[in-house]
Amino acid sequence: xxxxxxxxxxxxxxWSLGANLLTRISSLxxxxxxxxxxxxxxxxxxYAALFAALAVGVLASIPMGGTGILGVRLIGxxxxxxxxxxxxxxxxxLAIVNFSLAFGLIILTVIFMIGRGNSPALVCVALLPIVQxxxxxxxxxxxxxxNEHYWTAGLGLGLQLFWYAxxxxxxxxxxxxxxxxTVFHAPTTVASIANxxxxxxxxxxxLRGRAVDPRKMLRTGASFGAAEGLxxxxxxVVVIYLQATSTASVTAWFATQNRLFQMCLxxxxxxxxxxxxxxxxxxxDAGDRRQRDAIKAAYAAGAVALIGIAGGLSVIGPxxxxxxxxxxxxxxxxxxxxxxxxxxxxxxxxxxxAIAYLVLDGAWLAHRVIAAVLVAGFGWLVATRFLPPVQSFxxxxxxxxxxxxxxxxxxxxxxxxxxxx
Length: 421
Known about the structure:
Structural class: mainly alpha
Helix content: over 70%
Radius of gyration: 21 Å
Order of helices and strands: HHHHHHHHHHHHHH
Number of strands: 0
Shape: globular
């Protein structure tokens, strides 16, 4: 064990994994304390409206997903070569692209939300995920490239617990829709800004240099962002769709399942993101055998996670919603299984991509994921003409699950075939 941690990067990885595991304390509080307080304080209608507004913001944040992944690749590659000019160029390019995109997306989101007749409070709620995505995608991904994710986790945990205390002690945070929404995004955003300030204090050279061409970074990251965003964005679309076509209780039930899934996905990503940064730094010096082992491990972890997430949430999710939040399932168990299978498929994808996108030419996989979501989306559109809202979404979820698993399996085989055993 002592020999393993003799390497500085391995010690930093250990710190990141340990700090990330501690952040799960706040997730348990969210499930058993915060969500019940919010639905009791806001009521089902405003609770559903809150999550629908957040879903709009999550959808608007899709374009920033790919630039973050590309930023980790570029900064990590430059750091592994000791190229400070390259690190600065990648960081500045990442910052310019993310915050420029965020500014434009904020304007479009405000126009969209006002056009739908939302209150000023809900308009502001929709902006929270965009601001968080810009800060996380810049500062936290830069930390990840240096294998220093423990800073992100530690700051996030402290601020999350502080916000929970505000919600418990200050009634407005339970009854006002905007203040209630801050519990989901404000702690992470503030932590990310503090993380960025500390990063730049430790590495002031990141602000000196010439940025990577933002247009080139945007074009290159578009494939990664579209694949990542379309998959996660579909979970936001279903909430918005159900708010327009179903009752508030149905929308609240689906929004709650989405939140539970994200809270289950986060700890996995909290483990895989530091591992991805570590692998990125070590990849160039690893032989074919170790590279094959890394890809096999990522695929195996994703397959196990698919089964665990789909099976676990199909039992825990409905039980929690009914017995803790008093939200009855909107359909029978078999009709809801495609939703939980989709949760599993997304987890499989995120586990594999956490490694593959940082070290491989991920465009092949990204393009097939994009195609899978678009094909399934067309099937959903057709199904809305013949099936009720919940069942029509089930068509999308089932088709997406099958196509994503097929694309991941083929990508793994293609990658291993190119590296001798």
